[in-house]
Amino acid sequence: MQETTQLIKLTNCQVLRGHQLIIDDLWIRNGSIIDAEVLFWQACRGQASWQPVQVLDCKGLILVPGYIDSQINGAFGVDFSRSNLSPSDLDRVASQLVQHGVTSFCPTVISCSRDVYQEILSLFEPRWSCGHKASILGAHLEGPFINNAKYGAHPKNVLRDLKRGIVSLEECYGPLEDVARFVKVITLAPELEGALDCIELLQSRLPETVISLGHSLADLNTSSAAVSRGASMITHLFNAMVPFHHRDPGIVGLLGVAHRQEAQAGGAPRLFYGLIADGIHTHPASIRIAYATHPKGCVLVTDAMQAMGLPTNSEGLLRLGDVDIQVENGNTAKVSGTDVLAGSIARLDECVRIFRQASGSSLVRAVECASLHVAQMLKLDHIIGKLEPGFRADLILVDSQLQVHATIIAGQLAWLHPETRLDWTVSLDTVR
Length: 432
Known about the structure:
Elements: E1 7-11, E2 14-17, E3 20-23, E4 26-29, E5 32-34, H1 36-44, E6 54-57, E7 62-65, E8 67-72, E9 74-75, E10 78-79, H2 87-97, E11 102-110, H3 114-120, E12 135-136, E13 139-142, H4 166-173, H5 176-182, E14 183-188, H6 195-205, E15 210-213, H7 220-229, E16 233-234, H8 254-265, E17 272-276, H9 284-293, E18 298-301, E19 317-320, E20 323-328, E21 332-335, E22 341-343, H10 348-359, H11 363-368, H12 372-377, E23 395-398, E24 404-409, E25 412-416, E26 423-424, H13 428-431
Parallel strand pairs: 1-6, 2-7, 8-11, 11-12, 11-13, 13-14, 14-15, 15-16, 16-17, 17-18
Antiparallel strand pairs: 1-4, 2-3, 4-5, 6-26, 7-23, 9-10, 19-20, 20-21, 21-22, 23-24, 24-25
């Protein structure tokens, strides 16, 4: 992060803080949010300057934490599961996601061969951005340890088992030391032989890595056992799993269990679930049921693939890993020749707006499902996800309809909507 003692002040705005919108200013120094009261007393003692070198008049817009996409398979023509993926490909996506309010993300790799993992995993090492593009938080490895009856758009020929537990995992991904360095989330099916012991050992040895349950036929007992062993996330709820049944609700039933545990324990939830609120993958009624049951665990994801962000005249055959994808009507991606949905091509800001309407939630709660909850799930809620002193100044300016007007990363303007007129009293170049 670029060091500077120059102060930045954002004024004439509503700030999301403490689960509510308050009228306040927001101060930034060295890429982090600072406490204005502490700064004032430091200035009184001659220990700091109270004079900002840059003031942004937000014109009454709303300041909220930047969005975090923890499941995105690709975008803007880039496929994260491609063996010849390059650093410039990642930079291209990171620099363009900011226009959708995304300030950090987990590049997601679907089931691949061992050789592909060995070739590309090091590209996903977490790195915080200095302000011009979204930060990379580590890879989300979605497979290949999934049920071969729920593989969805994943290439079936590369799926693997976990019969030898950690040994099976290391043979695929590489040594656990590398997994710890490059990987933030692992999605697996808990019913696979050896999976429960593998989850427990992973959480013991890699406590910062999130284990998510998905692409699975697991019943509720097996799913609950996986959570007790250390799993803390459900990958794209309702999709690629056993449908809800009143006698055995499967993985979906974890929402009811988690809600009860949360009510008893209080605080942050132990279990989170991803929702693809793109208007296609999850019916509005399903969104309402999930959110009403376990609101604090809701994490909005795009599950976007490489067609996201491409112009509508690019519809046709695309590649997702080793699978041909057909994009139809500009908003639906299917495995070519089938009716199997391959992934979303919706933007995260669009998903937040769809979710707000479908769930009936407030603006604040909808935003938290794409920011605070994601940071909590990723175990990064001491760094991002809030607009509190000490947190990274990753934030976006939105209006009451949740349209993104500007994205700021580490205190630097990363993107400004071309039709938005904001008053910067000092040139951005002065601050950089």
